Design the sequence.
């Protein structure tokens, strides 16, 4: 834990699936990430790396899906 320092990453939330898809498109277009989307059950996640080499993620929480129905940490 904390292999990348005291701050591991930022998680940014977007309000809609359309916003999520647009942010993902921009991440790929800028070469900041590969655009792989991880479906964690209750949310979608895509990662990117900032210019300083720090990893981050953008998430969209699926409406109507309880968070407890998402993947547990051991399943990531």
Sequence:
């Amino acid at each position: 834990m904390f292999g990348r320092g005291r701050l591991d990453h930022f998680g940014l939330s977007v309000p809609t699936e359309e916003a999520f898809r647009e942010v993902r498109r921009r991440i790929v277009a800028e070469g900041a990430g590969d655009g792989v989307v991880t479906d964690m059950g209750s949310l979608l996640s895509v990662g990117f790396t900032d210019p300083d080499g720090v990893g981050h993620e953008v998430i969209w929480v699926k409406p109507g899906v309880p968070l407890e129905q998402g993947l547990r940490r051991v399943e990531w």
